[in-house]
Every structure is written in C-alpha cells, then in structure tokens.
Amino acid sequence: VQLVESGGGLVQPGGSLRLSCAVSGITFSSPAMSWVRQAPGKGLEWVSTISSDGTTNYLDSVKGRSTVTRDNAKNTLYLQMSSLKPEDPAVYYCAKYKSARIEYRGQGIQVTVSA
After folding, report:
1. Nearest to 63 by CA among 52, 49, 76, 51
2. Phi and psi of 56, rounded to 5°?
3. Which residues pair with 33 in a beta bridge?
4. Are 35 and 88 within 8 A, CB to CB?
5. What is the structure's pLDDT at 30?
C-alpha cells in the first residue's frame, strides 16, 4: 500500500493550495479517506474525512476554508485549503483509518504559511 502526498510548500497568509494524495495497493473507492496533520512539537491532528459516498467532515478550525474531494478513477485524494492561517502550518498526511486507528499513512508533505 502506498499513499504519496504532493502539492505542499510555502504559502502566504490568506493564500491557498491544494494537496493531493495518490493511493495504490487498496481498493480506493471503498474506504473513507482522511487528512491528518502534525505541527512542530504537537501530536497528530485529524483534519478531514471523506467517505465512499462523498460525505465529508472537517476539523472546526478548517471548516469553511477547506474542501476534501476524491477522484476514484484516479485513486487520488485532494484537500483544497484557502485563507491559510498561521495555525495551519504542519506536515499533512493522507491516511486510511481502521477501527479508529490509522492503518496506512503517507510520508507527509510540508505546508508552511509565511509572508
């Protein structure tokens, strides 16, 4: 199983970016897929989940500024983030949960917010 994130980088406050996660080795269309993040010195924080039927859920602090989508034909998960804030910088991971624990996680992609 491989989950490979891309699309991170340096963004100015208030800016936008789109993270992508290419998934292989699992039947991508079936499970819910999630984004989690880890800021320096902090633990993993769940950010968003999209279920197989497209139902989405978001961490309160990113709700309204983020959109999670999936393209089952491309086995790819996306996270569009806008109005980026100083509290958003972190390493972002795409992840698949099983029984409330992360079963698979990518290597992560850095998102930095700075003027």
Report:
1. 49
2. -120, 150
3. 50
4. no
5. 82
Which amino acid appears at position 8 of this protein? Answer: G
Residues sharing a CB contact under 8 Å with residue 97, sequence separation 6 or more, in sequence order: 32, 34, 49, 103
Share of the chain above pLDDT 90, in %: 90
d(CA 50, CA 19): 14
Q: How far is CA 101 from CA 4, 85, 92, 97, 114, in A?
A: 19, 28, 17, 5, 32
CA atoms within 13 A on the CB side of 102: 15
Task: Round to whole Å and give the CA distance between 49 and 44.
Answer: 14
What pLDDT score does 107 carry?
97
Spell out where 25-83 has E strands.
Answer: 33-38, 44-50, 56-58, 66-71, 76-81
For the four alpha carbons of 23, 82, 48 and 104, in that order, the dihedral sign comes to positive
For 77-108, b/e burial (b = at least 16 CB within 10 A) is bbbebeebeeebbbbbbbbbbeeeeeebbbeb
- Whether residue 26 has pLDDT greater than 90: no
